Every structure is written in C-alpha cells, then in structure tokens.
Amino acid sequence: METGHYHEWATLFKVLARVHSVLEHIIPPTDTAELTAYDATKAANLPLWKRLDAVVLQWIYATVSHDILTSILVADDVAEKAWNRVAQLFQDNKHSRAAYLETEFTTTKMADFGSVMAYYNRLKSLTDQLANVGSPVSDQRLVLRLLAGLRSRMHTLSPPSNRKMFCLLSQVCSGLEARRCGDQGTCPRFQSRGSPCSM
C-alpha cells in the first residue's frame, strides 16, 4: 500500500479483520460495556490475544509498501499502535496529497486516454481520492470537468463516436442522479429526449 491508496487499504483491511473477528486489535471498542467485555476476554486468555495480535500486526506489515514499513516498524509492537502510525502517516501527507490530486483533476484531458470510459474512470478515481483527503468534488464539478476534457475531442470524432460520448455522459448523469436521490432510476433529463444510445 502506498500513501495515495490509504483509504482503499484501510477499508479492505477492516473487512479482513471483521471476517477473522480481530477488528478490536486495531480499533478497540469505545462503548464502555463493549470495552469492558473486550478487556475481560483479553485477560481471560492473554497468550491467545497476543498471538492474534501478532497475526494482525503481520498482516499490516505485509500489506504496506517498504517505505511505509520502515517508517512504522517498532520492536515489540502491537497491532493497534502500528495501525495508528500508518493512519498518522496518511494524515501528515493529507494537504500535499490534496493539492497534488486537485492539480491532476483539473489538468486531466481526454487526449491522454484511449477511451472515454478510461477518461471518466480516471476522473472518478481522482474525485474519490479527493473526498478521502477531505476535499470532496461535487457531482456538478465532475460533470463539468468531464465535458471540458471532452470538448476538444468532440469536434474531431465522427457522429457515431459523438453518440457514444453522449451515451457515456447520460450514464454518468444517471448514476449521479441515482446516487443523489437514492433511486435506481435514470437521469430524467436524458431519458425524456430520444436516446441515441439504443441506435
């Protein structure tokens, strides 16, 4: 895991920890009753707890990049502290990462990609990463950036290719509208017109 992919790594790691019932080794309970029960379980079989903690610690070490590993490696460590050090590394780089991602988002153009879908996927990935560093991109801004990047390409493409771009934009709008409304429908603005996507 590189620092640019911290949220993806942390999300997948938490899923793994839940599957094996060891999430408390990296994120202890905050509820008083749950914390008391966790401490009692830990005290009842400390050798087992230490072995499980070592397994989780090994997972952390095995799934981060070498640079991150050398930054967080401490003798006689526990999983929770290693987990927190990885998170702190990400927090320390948050502002510079946001500036870098913002530059990438505003300068990404369709000409750099082999297909409209690859271009859209790159923009979507950048918006997700920006949200993860506390700089969310609105749906409107995503669509405007998509259109701005497509503008120069639209003039050079044949009508069937323009239709494909329109269809992609329609799908993007539909997905954003569905996410905003919590509905599985399509974007009514595009659906109301004769759709070239079925041609």
Describe this structure in words.
The structure is a single chain. The chain is mainly alpha-helical and 199 residues long. It has two domains: 3-92, no CATH class; 94-198. It is built from ten helices and no strands.
Mean pLDDT: 79
Main beta-sheet annotation: none
Count the DSSP helices: 10
Q: Which percent range fits the helix content?
A: over 70%
Rg from alpha-carbon coordinates: 23 Å
Shape designation: elongated
Total number of strands? 0
Stretches where pLDDT is under 50 for at least 5 consecutive residues are: 183-199
Number of spatially distinct domains: 2
How much of the polypeptide forms β-strand, as a percent range? Answer: under 5%
* CA distance, first residue to last residue: 44 Å
Order of helices and strands: HHHHHHHHHH
Secondary structure category: mainly alpha
